[in-house]
């Protein structure tokens, strides 16, 4: 009798699990290792942080990697709920509700080894060509300066290879991204590239919920709360350490 | 009728052979023309497709050179890969490879070596920031190799070929059946009807015209012209047949009449022969019976003259001498009539007769008479003839005798006997003299019985000589012609035994 009741309760428990699960949150980021990528552990640092925090906050999280332009478009059209791994941009704040920053990374220039470029002021960049990622944000003044000679690329890897190939003078990105690239598939280019020591800026990484999500504010609030908790109990640091940060 | 019936039955059970031949020839000609036409069309299509493939390479180079170069320049591997896939999706592209200057290769398609055409395009980036212009005016970022195949063009041509072949086959089958059916209806059916009509044994004996099954007011064609010609021929033949039949009937009537006339003629001839024979028998009998009394009277008168030489006066003697002379004339007449009666019978004893020898024998008989008047008779070699020697002798006797008798006393008598033109005759000769001649007015009558141009006192004679000559010549299926002028002699040309054709 007891076993029958116990079994019945288990069946009910299993059946109600979907009812117990929290709302589904669709999270998307672009291929931007080490922060996000299909082949990265847990899809990258940013997506593991976001997924871990939101799951701990009681949400059911679904993660996917998309091209950056599609990530933003999908957020605008409601095909995804959360954009992971982005810098804060006032233009995007019109349709995205940003969380607290969960990570900070410096943005450095990279030049061809021995080219001797010195970037002390924006004007130092003007005579040079700079490979920039399409849709990427680096630094507000840099991003809006019309005098910069931009060569648009799709990925940071492209930019690094163009610099190594002498096709552009500079490229820039998060130091984490640059170091990850040079430690991985572009390791052979290491001797040919030089990371300028002075960062252009230090950017915070955020997660952002689309403004038209009915629980946008709640999700951000929950994210922030859990993030604080995880920082407090050390689990966040352990999480970052997993990714070498 | 039986033949026509058999033809009808045969026609109904057999297909139209003529129609089959026509359709077969038409199908063969159509097939040849279709093959030539389709072949030309397919060849042109294949050439166009080839050119399209070759120009496609140019189009690909034009369309993709820039984007691939740019992607290579930017190290946008995924874009290069996407562009290579896009190029490779082109139907005529067997394979495509893009090789960067760093040695990275993007490939799509079959292995190299299976292409029909290989094109190679260097990818050179021009302009842009930090372009690094080289000596060629640009920076080489890689090479685009394009392998093109005509397999698609060939496949299309084969597909077109089979489509055309199948459609032509179906079209030909349908057209052939329709043509055969139409030929059967328009030609063969009518030809069978015409054949049955003409094959009827009585078709040329009746005026019943042939009619082809036609709708009222329907169009006429060459079949109707044939039928009209046949009907016209039939009508003409019937009319000609009737005319011939009428002519035959007329000939039969004429023949019957002629037969009757021939019978009457034969009867008359027989009667005439009988009459002639009786006349000749009468003449012979009378002349023969007269000969004895005349001879007796002549003997008596001679006796009287001889015994009464001293008693008779001059007048009595003259009368008796005149009587003797008259009796002599009568005896001569009786002899001549007797001879004529024998010859006029017309019986000819057929034997080869040497006319020259015969003429010389007769001339020898007249040698005394000829010598008496100083006449010369020249006889040339004459041909031989099959005839009655006795009658021919009489002929020469009368001709030579007349020539001597009617000699011109003013000049020496010359008689020539020589061969004449004998074309169409077994023998022909001429007896010519230089005597007194004969007036052409009498050339016909002189051959009549007892006809003379002179009195007995002028030139003795009975008037039967030339009649006998004509009778002998007639008995020998010949003719005798006279050429003479008064005072210039006469030439009698005798032709004997007319030759028949064949």
UniProtKB/TrEMBL annotation, chain A:
Segments passing through the bilayer: none
Keyword Nucleus carried by entry: no
Record-given protein name: Transporter substrate-binding domain-containing protein
Domain Solute-binding protein family 3/N-terminal stretches: 24-244
Listed Gene3D superfamilies: Periplasmic binding protein-like II (3.40.190.10)
Keywords for the protein's UniProt record, in alphabetical order: Signal
Listed InterPro entries: Solute-binding_3/MltF_N
Highest taxon, organism lineage: Bacteria
From TrEMBL, chain B:
Leader peptide range in chain numbering: none
EC number: 2.7.13.3
Coiled coil: 241-278
Catalytic activity: ATP + protein L-histidine = ADP + protein N-phospho-L-histidine
Domain named Histidine kinase: residues: 285-500
CDD domains: HisKA
GO biological process, one term: osmosensory signaling via phosphorelay pathway
Enzyme class, first EC level, given as a word: transferase
Protein name: histidine kinase
Protein's organism: Harenicola maris
């Amino acid at each position: 009798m007891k076993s029958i009741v116990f079994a019945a309760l288990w069946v009910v428990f299993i059946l109600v699990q979907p009812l117990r699960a929290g709302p589904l949150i669709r999270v998307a980021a672009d291929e931007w290792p080490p922060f996000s990528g299909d082949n990265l552990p847990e899809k990258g640092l940013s997506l593991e942080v976001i997924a871990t925090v939101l799951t701990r906050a009681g949400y059911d999280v679904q993660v996917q990697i998309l091209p950056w332009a599609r990530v933003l478009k999908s957020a605008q059209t409601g095909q995804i709920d959360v954009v992971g791994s982005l810098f804060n941009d006032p233009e995007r704040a019109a349709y995205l509700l940003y969380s607290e920053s969960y990570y900070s990374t410096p943005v450095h220039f990279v030049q061809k080894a021995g080219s001797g470029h010195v970037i002390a002021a924006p004007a130092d960049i003007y005579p040079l060509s700079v490979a920039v990622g399409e849709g990427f944000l680096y630094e507000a003044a840099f991003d809006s300066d019309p005098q910069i000679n931009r060569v648009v690329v799709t990925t940071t890897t492209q930019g690094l290879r163009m610099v190594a190939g002498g096709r552009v003078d500079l490229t820039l990105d998060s130091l984490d991204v640059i170091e990850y690239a040079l430690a991985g598939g572009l390791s052979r280019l290491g001797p040919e590239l030089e990371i300028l020591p002075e960062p252009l800026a230090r950017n915070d990484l955020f997660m952002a919920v689309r403004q038209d999500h009915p629980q946008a504010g709640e999700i951000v609030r929950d994210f922030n709360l859990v993030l604080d908790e995880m920082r407090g109990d050390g689990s966040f640091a352990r999480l970052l350490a997993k990714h070498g940060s | 009728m039986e033949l026509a019936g058999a033809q009808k039955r045969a026609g109904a059970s057999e297909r139209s052979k003529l129609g089959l031949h026509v359709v077969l020839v038409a199908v063969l000609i159509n097939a040849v023309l279709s093959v030539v036409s389709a072949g030309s069309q397919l060849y042109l299509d294949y050439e166009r497709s080839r050119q399209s493939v070759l120009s496609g390479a140019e189009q690909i180079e034009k369309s993709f050179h820039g984007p691939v170069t740019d992607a290579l320049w930017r190290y946008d591997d995924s874009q290069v890969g996407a562009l290579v896939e896009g190029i490779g999706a082109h139907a005529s592209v067997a394979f495509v490879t893009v090789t960067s200057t760093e040695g990275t290769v993007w490939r799509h398609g079959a292995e190299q070596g299976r292409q029909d055409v290989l094109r190679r395009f260097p990818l050179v980036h021009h302009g842009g920031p930090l372009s690094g212009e080289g000596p060629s005016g640009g920076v080489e970022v890689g090479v685009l190799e394009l392998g093109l195949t005509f397999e698609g063009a060939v496949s299309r041509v084969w597909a077109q070929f089979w489509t055309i072949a199948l459609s032509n086959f179906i079209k030909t089958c349908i057209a052939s059946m329709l043509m055969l059916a139409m030929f059967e209806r328009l030609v063969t059916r009518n030809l069978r009807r015409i054949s049955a009509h003409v094959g009827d044994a009585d078709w040329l004996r009746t005026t019943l015209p042939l009619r082809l099954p036609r709708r009222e007011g329907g169009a006429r064609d060459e079949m109707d012209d044939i039928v009209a010609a046949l009907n016209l021929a039939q009508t003409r033949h019937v009319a000609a047949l009737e005319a011939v039949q009428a002519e035959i009937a007329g000939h039969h009537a004429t023949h019957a009449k002629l037969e009757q006339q021939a019978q009457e003629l034969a009867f008359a001839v027989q009667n005439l022969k009988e009459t002639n024979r009786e006349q000749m028998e009468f003449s012979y009998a009378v002349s023969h019976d007269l000969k004895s009394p005349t001879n007796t009277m002549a003997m008596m008168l001679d006796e009287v003259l001889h015994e009464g030489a001293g008693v008779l006066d001059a007048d009595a003697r003259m009368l008796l001498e005149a009587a003797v002379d008259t009796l002599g004339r009568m005896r001569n007449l009786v002899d001549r009539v007797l001879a004529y009666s024998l010859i006029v019978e017309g019986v000819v004893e057929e034997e080869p007769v040497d006319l020259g020898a015969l003429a010389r024998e007769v001339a020898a008989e007249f040698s005394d008479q000829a010598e008496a008047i100083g006449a010369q008779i020249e006889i040339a070699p004459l041909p031989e003839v099959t005839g009655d020697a006795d009658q021919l002798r009489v002929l020469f006797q009368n001709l030579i005798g007349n020539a001597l008798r009617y000699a011109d006393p003013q000049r020496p008598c010359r008689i020539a006997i020589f061969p004449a033109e004998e074309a169409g005759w077994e023998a022909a000769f001429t007896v010519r003299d230089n005597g007194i001649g004969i007036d052409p007015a009498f050339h016909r009558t002189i051959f009549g019985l007892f006809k003379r141009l002179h009195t007995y006192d002028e030139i003795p004679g009975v008037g039967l000589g030339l009649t006998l000559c004509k009778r002998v010549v007639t008995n020998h299926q010949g003719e005798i012609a006279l050429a003479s002028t008064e005072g210039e002699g006469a030439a009698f040309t005798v032709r004997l035994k007319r030759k028949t054709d064949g």
